[in-house]
TrEMBL record:
Its EC number is 2.7.4.9. One of its GO terms (molecular function) is dTMP kinase activity. Pfam families: Thymidylate_kin. The lineage of its organism: Eukaryota, Fungi, Dikarya, Basidiomycota, Agaricomycotina. This is Thymidylate kinase. GO terms for biological process: dTDP biosynthetic process; dTTP biosynthetic process; dUDP biosynthetic process. Belongs to the thymidylate kinase family. Signal peptide: none annotated.
Length: 227
């Protein structure tokens, strides 16, 4: 136990990222089921969380039912993560392994792909809880295009997805070198069969399933400007 009375062996924070129709949600649900079957306390979150007041505005935007300035919607996506940051930390410190379908990396990748400055896009998410492992499900946009439901939401356009993929690759390179090597980014070939993707994910996740003993880090905190 630490000085706050919390267990020092906390749950792992695992984020699943990827292009639209890369299989993120399906794989996150499969991973949750696998963890729970193994009697590992686990919970799944999704961003944007469309159930909150901010999330409902985002949902309307993503369905092309409303329009917002690119900077305004980016800040709303970040605010949606911040309104749940405390519950993320609480769940992890209670010993729950937390799976997250999209996180700050998506917010940055999609906004930067639209042409907003990369550093500006990243700034609102500095100091959010940092994942212990980010799984990037990588699939060629032309492959994703052939999957069911493609094109139903605002960003599901092939050229947009190509730009997003480039931004994700940049984020992966930067994240892999941060946090003393503890914040891991693993790229998964999402063009494989569903079963093969699931097994690749499990191999990356398995070392974390019994908890993490290092403190919860904060995203890009070392790059934040002094207060």
């Amino acid at each position: 136990m630490d000085q706050t009375g919390q267990s020092s062996n906390r749950g792992a924070f695992i984020v699943v990222e990827g292009l639209d129709r890369s299989g993120k949600s399906s794989q996150a649900a499969r991973l949750l089921e696998r963890l729970q079957t193994a009697n590992i306390p686990a919970k799944l979150m999704k961003f944007p969380d469309r159930t909150t007041a901010i999330g409902k505005t985002i949902d309307s935007y993503l369905r092309s039912e409303s329009d917002l300035d690119d900077r305004a919607i980016h800040l709303l996506f970040s605010a949606n993560r911040w309104e749940l940051a405390t519950s993320i930390s609480s769940a992890l410190h209670s010993g729950t392994t937390l799976l997250c379908d999209r996180y700050a990396f998506s917010g940055i990748a999609f906004s930067a792909a639209k042409g907003l400055p990369y550093d500006w896009c990243r700034a609102p998410d500095i100091s959010l809880p940092a994942p212990d492992l980010t799984l990037f499900l990588d699939v060629a946009p032309e492959v994703a295009r052939e999957r069911g439901g493609y094109g139903e939401e605002r960003y599901e356009k092939e050229e947009m997805q190509r730009q997003v993929r480039v931004m994700f690759q940049r984020l992966g390179e930067e994240t892999s070198g941060s946090g003393g090597g503890r914040q891991r980014w693993v790229t998964i070939d999402a063009g494989q069969s569903i079963q093969a993707v699931e097994e690749d994910i499990w191999r990356a996740v398995e070392p974390l399933v019994h908890g993490v003993d290092n403190p919860l880090e904060r995203l890009w905190e070392t790059t934040a400007a002094p207060s």
